[in-house]
Specification:
about 280 residues, alpha/beta, seven-stranded parallel sheet, two-stranded antiparallel ribbon, about 15% strand
Length: about 280
């Protein structure tokens, strides 16, 4: 996230209930596009950036939840929040968000959309594995490249791609897709190293969100390993603004990320195979 992005400008002009604005201020607010914004980490990014004065484009599949969040943030933070309903597992959904990026000014892109599987690799239909990879890798790649080109021409901007600490493990297609996103982000950051555009991969560990309950899995491990949404958002934005290519929120997880590269792969495979969520039967 470029540190040269101008500070938010509060307009003296009143806003309509739908968030429209005459935009009479000479320096409009910076604008962030967030995927997976209807819940969890995406909702956390939206709340934080709205508090800082960013206008928002909120992207997800659930229109009702997006609209509720947009209305709330417009009312409480006096910013403009637009809703873009899109399924990023679908070609049309990706294209619709690329069109927004190509035609509207976006200062910050946060690729956060998630996709979890209820079964193992062998239990999951190949079409669902493809959809997961499209959301976690394909959409991230396309939106990042579209944004990077526009940001370069505007000489400002920041891209935050939410990967996962699972990227260093062998825990199924989720880990494979997140590892691909991590490497892609590092490669893109390398190509942009001499530009004012920053690119950051965020590798969270376990976060207290609705993700696991929606999958019908119980949270493993002691409570102390679970990070709050606010902590992950705060630390990842801080690192992005500092120009860090990789951000690992939480000191315990930062230590794990440092140790992971020296762990023998057979041991990593053993640990990854031995780890599994306790599945419930509520699905």
């Amino acid at each position: 996230m470029n540190r040269e992005v101008p500070p938010p400008q509060r307009s003296e002009t009143s806003r309509a209930r739908d968030g429209s604005s005459p935009r009479r201020d000479p320096s409009p607010r910076p604008r962030a596009l967030i995927t997976g914004a209807s819940s969890g980490l995406g909702r956390g990014y939206a709340r934080t950036l709205a508090t800082e004065g960013y206008d928002l484009v909120l992207v997800a599949r659930n229109e009702a939840r997006l609209s509720e969040l947009a209305d709330q943030l417009q009312t409480t933070q006096n910013i403009r929040a637009e809703v873009a309903v899109a399924d990023l597992s679908d070609r049309d959904g990706i294209d619709s968000v690329v069109e927004i990026i190509a035609t509207q000014p976006i200062d910050v892109l946060i690729n956060n959309a998630g996709f979890g599987l209820r079964g193992t690799l062998l239990d999951t239909d190949i079409a669902e594995l493809d959809e997961q990879d499209r959301v976690l890798t394909g959409a991230v790649r396309e939106l990042s490249l579209a944004s990077a080109k526009r940001m370069q021409s505007r000489v400002r901007g920041g891209i935050v791609n939410v990967s996962s600490l699972a990227a260093v493990t062998t825990m199924g297609q989720y880990a494979a897709s997140k590892a691909s996103t991590l490497i892609f982000t590092e490669a893109l950051a390398g190509e942009l190293r001499d530009s004012p555009v920053t690119v950051t991969a965020v590798l969270p560990g376990f976060i207290r969100t609705e993700f696991h309950s929606r999958l019908g899995v119980e949270r493993p491990g002691p409570g102390l390993i679970w990070l709050s949404v606010d902590q992950v958002v705060r630390e990842s934005l801080r690192d992005a603004r500092a120009g860090k290519v990789v951000s690992v929120p939480g000191w315990g997880y930062r230590l794990a990320a440092l140790v992971a590269p020296v762990v023998p792969r057979p041991l990593m495979r053993w640990g990854s195979t031995g780890f599994s969520f306790a599945r419930t039967h509520r699905m």
